[in-house]
Amino acid sequence: MTAVTSLSTNCSTTSERVTDRIPSDHQTIESHRVHLSTVGRTRRYQLSLPDGLDCAIGDVAVLSLEGETVYAEVTAGLDGEATVQSAARTRGAAGTQDSENELHSWLDSHEIEKGDALVLDVLRTGYAYGLRRPGERVVYSPPDAPDSSLASIAKDLDG
Q1: Three-state SS at 35
Q2: What's the gap between Cα 44 and its chain centre?
Q3: Domain boundaries, the chain
Q4: Percent of the chain residues past pLDDT 90, beyond the cut
């Protein structure tokens, strides 16, 4: 009897984890086609974010690069549009020059260049997104959104 109880407890835990994962082609995922561009005449890549994503300049979003979680600060492009120009492995390093640019590394490893199309998936509105190559299917593990009261405290501390 104990072995059966233990087994069903493990199965329950496993099924809870499975429901936290969602494929990019699931009906609840909103997908946007975006194109890679550069900042002005530089070689620095940027992704202009589609309107309606509920992201403000200065927000740090969770970004899944075909399943690898990184953090990206939403920045203003030269035209004032919301863009993502870099990503870091930690939230604290997002938007700084203190770490390797994971977005550029991912783009380079897949030989993605200026003008190429990508798909931006909305995992959690205003907080978590996925980036993938067109035609690729990714299974995401979207994070829970932060507690809004904690997020507002953090913004107040940042000034």
Answers
A1: strand
A2: 19
A3: 26-140
A4: 42
Three-state SS at 15: helix
Q: SS in 3 state form for 65-132?
A: ECCEEEEEEEEECCCCCEEECCCECCCCCCCCCCCCCHHHHHHHHCCCCCCCEEEEEEEECCCEEEEE
pLDDT band at 157 (very low <50, low <70, confident <90, very high): low
Output the pTM of the full model. 0.76
Is residue 159 within 8 Å of residue 140, measured between CB atoms?
no
Residue 99's pLDDT is what?
A: 82
C-beta atoms surrounding 49 within 10 Å: 20
The CATH number corresponding to 26-140 among 2.40.330, 2.30.29, 3.30.830, 2.40.50 equals 2.40.330
Residues across the chain: 159
- Whole-angstrom distance, CA of residue 116 vs CA of residue 78: 20
Q: Phi and psi (nearest 5°) for 129?
A: -140, 160
